[in-house]
Amino acid sequence: MRIIVNADDLGMSEEVNEAIFEGMQRGVITSATMLANGVAMRKAAQNLHRFPHCSFGVHLNLTEFAPVCAENCGGLSSILDETGRFNGNRIREIRIGPRMLKAIFREWCSQIECLMELGAHPSHLDAHHHVHTIPELLPVLMALRMRYRIDKVRMSRNMYDEIERPSGALLAKKQLYNFALRTIGFRTTQIFTDLVTFIKLCGAKPPRAESVELMTHPGSEPGSEEARLLETGWTSRLSYDATLISYRIL
Question: Residue ranges of the domains in the chain?
Fold first, then answer.
């Protein structure tokens, strides 16, 4: 089994940056996704060269901070607050029509190109608060894949414990969405979940999968169960052998 351990939110803050890079240094994190409009992204970019064994993707954003493409704000106005910043979960509350799709495509292109200008070579795509899994945005993802030749993406989550397991109908929609991602040319892992859930469900027995992505958020919740797993070397909780990889070799 091959496992990608991806740290979300690189560039969100200096504390998050430090926690992610420290995890990469210790070999417990193999990948990270970058917030182009994060307040500490420029500082994070100065350290990417230190980790050639890791992958760095784009954490596409529509929910927090200000848009990268300022001249595009008119098209995004319905998902911005009064200060011109992304308005949380608003993107999931509105009707996403052609004008909004064009504005999102321009903004996400700007985010990718901003990171490239900082010296990043994006390996894959995912999104802040998983907004890339909104079905209406699938054409935007396809356009980004074709434009930037980024053909790896995070799938919709498909492993849950019993406490948070969604309805059968929602799981079926997720399965259909993941099938659509692969149909339009994206490469994904076979399982996507968070680190804590994976250790809980699969620590003693491996799942029937060749590839897994585990989501983490280093630096965001000090003292949490996830933080303790990363600090103590989470692979010691596995009763079987697994190979840690980055998105570059998925």
Answer: 2-249
Among 32, 45, 40, CA closest to 12:
40
Determine the topology of domain 2-249 in CATH.
Answer: TIM Barrel (3.20.20)
Could you give the 3-state DSSP secondary structure of residue 26?
Answer: helix
Alpha-carbon span 105 to 224, nearest angstrom: 36
Q: Is the pLDDT of residue 21 over 90?
A: yes
Query: Is the separation of the CB atoms in 215 and 176 below 8 Å?
Result: no
| Run of H or E including 218 | none
Q: How far apart are CA 52 and CA 200, in angstroms?
A: 31
pLDDT confidence of 206, banded at 50, 70, 90?
very high
Burial class (CB in 10 A: 0-12, 13-18, 19+), 36: buried
What pLDDT digit, counting tens, does each position of 69-87 carry? 988 888 999 999 999 999 9
Whole-angstrom distance, CA of residue 18 vs CA of residue 192:
25
